[in-house]
Write a structure and sequence with these properties.
The chain is built from 13 helices and no strands. By secondary structure, the chain is mainly α. It has a domain of 133 residues. The chain is globular, with a radius of gyration of 20 Å.
């Protein structure tokens, strides 16, 4: 809205969120959030790779992973929130479909531009004609926070450690959807993991998934351990499917970082 919501609307929103929070999902038994319950439903929980990881090759893979993460983020920023049809229309209009380069306004049909406008905040920084490095973005902030988390608290960090790191290092205005609600809950004195569920209608969205990379990178060849670390991070802000997304991504990345699996094996490790 153009201005702050009226007090009565805020009160109504709180009542609706409380009602939503009190509703028990019919899938609760088969979509748990607790790690032990998740593992119990995964009889094929992935084991560590049998062969040791080649550290020299790992360094090269990690560099490629980080560059790919940053490049993919910049590539997608100007078309964030557009439909697939809109993305294809823009790319085709500029001779860039199938996609093999950055998005550009050069040669873009004005009618296509009007029908599928760029992301307003990213247009000045993320088109081929104006890219100058990777601009700040939550998709890149979280991998950096993950590195800081491991540096500060070590590999056995807790969800409470993640919460403290956020309060110390992450501006509230750079969080969105489930993360912003969880951050607000922290400021209100709600403790993890209740931060994920209390008045949080976004708790099964995909926000946690963008925080998975570091846990995969730092567990090369051990997707199960990567998923466990991702779980401790995810439950600060998400439940059920929102948690599974981060666990899946971390496991896939860990399998890839190990170097002994093709893309299909990596995906199977996550699934």
């Amino acid at each position: 809205s153009a201005g702050p919501a009226a007090p009565e609307l805020r009160a109504l929103a709180g009542e609706i969120l409380d009602e939503l929070g009190a509703t028990v999902s019919p899938l609760a038994a088969c979509e748990p959030t607790g790690l032990d319950a998740i593992r119990a439903l995964c009889p094929a929980w992935p084991a560590p790779a049998a062969a040791p990881v080649d550290r020299d090759a790992l360094r090269s893979r990690l560099e490629a992973s980080w560059l790919g993460r940053a490049a993919g983020c910049v590539l997608g920023k100007p078309v964030e929130k557009l439909t697939l049809d809109g993305i294809r229309a823009i790319a085709r209009s500029t001779g860039n479909w199938p996609l093999d380069n950055w998005f550009t306004e050069v040669g873009l049909d004005p009618g296509v531009a009007a029908a599928h406008p760029w992301n307003r905040r990213s247009r000045p920084t993320s088109l081929a004609e104006n890219i100058d490095g990777a601009p700040e973005d939550d998709d890149l902030n979280y991998p950096l926070l993950g590195l800081l988390l491991l540096d500060r608290y070590g590999p056995d960090f807790s969800t409470a450690d993640v919460a403290q790191l956020w309060l110390d290092e992450l501006p509230a205005g750079r969080t969105f959807t489930a993360e912003r609600v969880a951050y607000r809950n922290l400021l209100a004195g709600v403790e993890p993991p209740d931060t994920a569920a209390y008045r949080n209608p976004f708790r099964e969205w995909i926000g946690a998934q963008i925080r998975a990379d570091v846990f995969g990178w730092t567990h090369p060849g051990d997707p199960g351990a990567a998923a466990g670390a991702a779980w401790r991070d995810a439950v600060l802000t998400h439940t059920a499917n929102g948690v599974y997304g981060e666990m899946f991504a971390a496991a896939v990345i860990a399998a890839a970082a190990g170097g002994g699996a093709d893309v299909h094996a990596c995906l199977r490790a996550g699934l």
